[in-house]
Amino acid sequence: MDSAASNLWLKRGLYLLLALLVLFLHLLPLDTQPDRWPFPDFLIALTFAWVLRRPEYVPTLLVALIMLAADLLFQRPPGLLAALVVLGTAYLRSATPGLRDAGFLGEWTTVAVVITAVFFLNRVILAILSVQQAALGMVVVQVVLTIGIYPLIVLLSQNGFGVRRVAPSDPGLSGGR
Predict the structure, then answer these.
(1) How far apart are CA 25 and CA 70, in angstroms?
(2) For the CA atoms of the chain, what is the radius of gyration?
(3) How many CA atoms lie within 13 Å of 27's alpha carbon, on the beta-carbon side?
(4) CB 51, CB 25: distance < 8 Å
(5) Is 66 exposed, middle or buried (0-12, 13-18, 19+ CB in 10 A)?
(6) Share of residues in the chain with pLDDT > 90 (%)
(7) In its keyword annotation, does this UniProt entry include Transmembrane (predicted)?
(8) How far apart (Å, rounded) are the C-alpha atoms in residues 139 and 144?
(9) Which of 69, 86, 145, 165 could cross-link 40 (Cys pair, CB 3.0–4.6 Å)?
(10) Mind giving me the DSSP string for 2-36?
């Protein structure tokens, strides 16, 4: 096996490990009192950051399985948020070439719109189905915190895990030499 293929599987395994760590830490009972503020959705921010950096590290099936597991573990309606995140990642995959020249502010704005759309569509679909939901204020705070934590996730991904944007001169790209 060549080093490019082994690096690809290593990064996919790292993403899976990080996602499972986020799920584990979210389920860990650190405090017996209910939270006053919702936590940002680290899993969505991590997934979107990695999809925009290196889409091949985060295959769609892996995102779907991880998000479905999160739905089941967090006792959310199974599959709804998973499907919305998969749709969000599909949009970001298609927007990646255009965002390469936009800089980080353009990327962050695009991710903010996608995160907001995912949470908004989740809320609308749950309202249509008459499912009990959290208060709107808490959901807005969670969206803002998730958007706010995105730059830190990107910084950690780039500097800590080496997940950088694909450069046009990279040999792993189609058409590259």
Answers:
(1) 12
(2) 17
(3) 13
(4) no
(5) buried
(6) 67
(7) yes
(8) 9
(9) 145
(10) -HHHHHHHHHHHHHHHHHHHHHHHHHS---SSPPS
| Alpha carbon distance 154, 36 (integer Å) | 26
Of 21, 15, 44, nearest in space to 119 by CA: 44
How far apart CA 41 and CA 139 sit, in angstroms, is 11
Closest Cα to residue 43, out of 35, 54, 51, 55?
A: 51
How far are the Cα atoms of 35, 48, 86 from residue 32, in angstroms, in the given order? 9, 31, 33
pTM of the model: 0.89
Compute the C-alpha angle 37/74/85, nearest 5°. Answer: 90
Say if CB 66 and CB 16 are below 8 A apart: yes
Tokens representing 5? 């293929």
Token digits for 113?
């719109």
Position 16: which residue type? L
Residue 138 scores a pLDDT above 70: yes
Contact 149, 40 (CB under 8 A): yes
Q: What's the token pair of residue 19?
A: 């996602």
